[in-house]
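Why do we care about 3D structure at all? Because function follows from shape, and shape follows, mostly, from sequence. That is the central idea of this module. The next example makes it concrete: a single protein chain, its amino acid sequence, and then its structure expressed as tokens.
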Amino acid sequence: MKIARAVTTGSLAAIALTWIWWLADPTAPASPAQPLAVTALLTANVVLTTARPSAKRALVAFVQRRAVNPLVRTLFRIGFVPFGFALLETRGRRSGKSRQTPVSNGLVGDTFWVIAEHGAQANYVRNLRADPRVRVKLRRGLRFVWLDGVATVLPDDDPLRRQRLVCGWRPLRWFNAITVRTLGTELLTIRIDLTGHSLDSERDRRRLPQSLHS
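And the structure:
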């Protein structure tokens, strides 16, 4: 099972990084309680992914929705975002409102790749299937820009291989890839063909006649 392999490799990498940090940091506590706790938690994560993937998906989605995603969106608004992140904006399939989801920066040429950690069950994947017209906000030099694009779901693509190709030799992308693999329950490849610069804000979009952005 690919998801079992993905979450195992991601968890092992995260465990290794935790222990390396503890061994290398001279200010780290003498007791290995913290890396041991992380090891136990990530081992339980592998078991939970295999035994109860729906429960894990609900837990991860709750934490991301309530804590992680609002924080990253706020960082984007104030312009203080680590390299390796981007925002994906979709249109709510029921509400019609814009929905912004933090994702790994998967820009390769004029194509933006997303590995959805919860596959077809992710809300933003459901949204872009209903309306494939999306926007991506990412860093260009020291500036953040919005780019329009058209999303395509690729169920037959190998998400682990795609992830390796997109990450290449970029350490920050690999850090995000480890997170996706560790938290994932069903990996799915999304290709976004970028079509050019977009307006900088949803407010500006609403000021245009509907025919210009429909």
